[in-house]
Design a protein that fits this description.
mainly alpha, Chromosomal Replication Initiator Protein Dnaa, Chain: A, elongated
Length: about 140
């Protein structure tokens, strides 16, 4: 019969240990804070401030503006889905869904895509020195 130490040694040979993973939240510095993006989207959507985007409101207008803000946060800051979700008080899968919805809307409606690109360019003007690294 094998001792516990022998079993553990055999386990290490059969199942190699996993390499340590880095738990970085964001790979690159955020050039534009997510709060500034939320403020810009709230202004364009005429919501009266970032609070509506961060609230629990689920009406179509607010939800779509929130999805747009999540999409822009992903595009501009390159932040991870969990980080964006935490900022908006949502789950990361909600952010993934928002990015898919906005990308599909941009593909089917070029006029909407032009407005999103214009908003993105406006945010670039407010970017800090790290924009080139984050782009």
């Amino acid at each position: 019969m094998m001792s516990d130490e022998e079993i553990l040694a055999l386990h290490d040979v059969i199942v190699p240990p996993r390499p340590a993973r880095s738990r970085r939240v964001v790979d690159v510095p955020m050039a534009v804070p997510m709060g500034r993006i939320a403020d810009a989207v709230a202004r364009v959507a005429q919501l009266g401030g970032r609070g509506a985007l961060l609230s629990l409101r689920r009406d179509h207008h607010t939800a779509f503006a929130r999805q747009l803000a999540m999409f822009l946060c992903r595009e501009v800051t390159r932040a991870s889905f969990p980080v964006i979700g935490k900022f908006f008080g949502r789950d990361h899968s909600t952010v993934v869904h928002a990015c898919k919805i906005i990308a599909a809307r941009m593909a089917e409606r070029p006029d909407f895509a032009d407005k999103v690109h214009a908003l993105k360019q406006d945010l670039r003007q407010h970017a800090g020195p790290f924009w080139e690294k984050a782009a």
